[in-house]
């Protein structure tokens, strides 16, 4: 049975409304997690509808086995390979809706052994797919100062990226960092106490986020997904993406803006037959309500963007 007590699906009502689920439709949940969104989609589908799902996390795949429904199919894989999976399932160009709920799930954060949270002592792991070779500890033990600085700045927008990177490099000379607490304590020492944002955000938040995004290739996966998603959709197909990080949301927003553009040429330019019909229609943008945030603080930074394929 899916453990709903450990995970609350973000913006659930908004996702189901935005997908405009057809009873006989074909849908894909690219980030199954603990199945909250998938269960809601199945509830909205008719007997002839189909739902396919993907996840890289073995724990998510194990949880998905609890769904005994002939309309449902779950495989271990990445949403970045959406086109490959659509071919595998013979649904390329036939999908009516795709959902992504990006970032780390509550069960992953709550499991200290996964190493995602600085609030729980555990190994520095942070791998979405535990079969992946590179863990946070391995990367921190070998990365150059310049590389760590770039990652902390680019993916975490950390203002003290270089001092933190230098401190990590100095500390590992004596002994490599192995636990979340060791890394968090080191970061706390490098961030001045007088900074106002420390009152609402733990000093390690940005660096932990940056490391996770880097070792899991999260932005690269989103790039690959966006480059292929239109090919798997049927005309009128809808994509719903929930992001929790400004970098992810910017990628999605830019993709929608570019896809929704029409004729790129100036009106007075005498070019015939060059009109470009937009391939996307921008849909609603949703944020969690105050009530949802009170029940599930993780929803605070969530942004749901909807887009529709129109050609």
Question: What is the fold's blueprint, element by element?
Answer:
Blueprint: H1 12-19, E1 26-29, H2 36-44, E2 50-55, H3 58-64, E3 72-76, H4 82-88, E4 95-101, H5 106-110, H6 136-142, H7 145-156, H8 161-174, H9 180-190, H10 205-215, H11 218-232, E5 233-243, H12 246-259, E6 280-287, H13 290-295, E7 303-309
Parallel strand pairs: 1-2, 1-4, 2-3, 4-5
Antiparallel strand pairs: 5-7, 6-7
- Main sheet: strands, sense, barrel: 7 strands, mixed
SS strand fraction: 15-25%
The general outline is elongated
Overall mean pLDDT stands at: 91
Q: Note the total helix count.
A: 13
The unreliable regions are 1-5, 269-276
The beta-strand count equals 7
Distance between the termini: 40 Å
As a percent range, the share of helical residues equals 40-55%
Oligomer: single chain
Class by alpha and beta content: alpha/beta
- State the order of secondary-structure elements, H for helix, E for strand: HEHEHEHEHHHHHHHEHEHE
Strand order of the largest sheet: 3-2-1-4-5-7-6
- Global Rg: 21 Å
Q: Top keywords for this entry?
A:
311 residues; 7-stranded mixed beta sheet; 13 helices; disordered N terminus
């Amino acid at each position: 049975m899916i453990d709903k007590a450990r995970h609350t699906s973000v913006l659930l009502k908004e996702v189901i409304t935005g997908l405009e689920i057809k009873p006989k439709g074909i849908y894909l949940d690219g980030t199954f997690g603990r199945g909250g969104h998938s269960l809601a989609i199945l509830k909205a589908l008719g007997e002839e509808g189909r739902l396919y799902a993907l996840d890289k996390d073995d724990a998510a795949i194990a949880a998905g086995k609890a769904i005994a429904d002939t309309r449902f199919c779950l495989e271990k894989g990445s949403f970045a390979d959406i086109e490959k999976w659509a071919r595998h399932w013979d649904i390329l160009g036939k999908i009516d809706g795709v959902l992504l709920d990006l970032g780390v799930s509550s069960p992953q954060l709550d499991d200290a052994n996964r190493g995602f949270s600085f609030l729980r002592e555990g190994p520095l792991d942070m791998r979405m797919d535990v079969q992946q070779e590179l863990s946070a500890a391995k990367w921190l033990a070998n990365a150059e100062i310049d590389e760590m600085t770039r990652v902390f700045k680019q993916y975490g927008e950390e203002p003290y990226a270089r001092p933190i990177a230098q401190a990590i490099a100095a500390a590992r000379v004596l002994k490599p960092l192995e636990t979340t607490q060791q890394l968090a304590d080191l970061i706390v020492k490098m961030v001045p106490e007088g900074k106002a944002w420390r009152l609402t955000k733990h000093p390690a938040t940005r660096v932990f986020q940056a490391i996770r995004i880097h070792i899991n290739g999260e932005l690269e996966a989103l790039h690959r997904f966006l480059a292929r998603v239109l090919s798997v959709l049927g005309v009128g197909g809808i994509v719903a993406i929930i992001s929790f990080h400004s970098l992810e949301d910017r990628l999605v927003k830019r993709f929608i803006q570019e896809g929704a553009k029409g004729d790129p040429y100036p009106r007075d330019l005498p070019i015939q037959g060059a009109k470009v019909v937009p391939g996307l229609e921008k849909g609603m943008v949703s944020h969690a309500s105050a009530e949802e945030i009170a029940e599930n603080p993780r929803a605070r930074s969530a942004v749901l963007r909807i887009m529709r394929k129109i050609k």
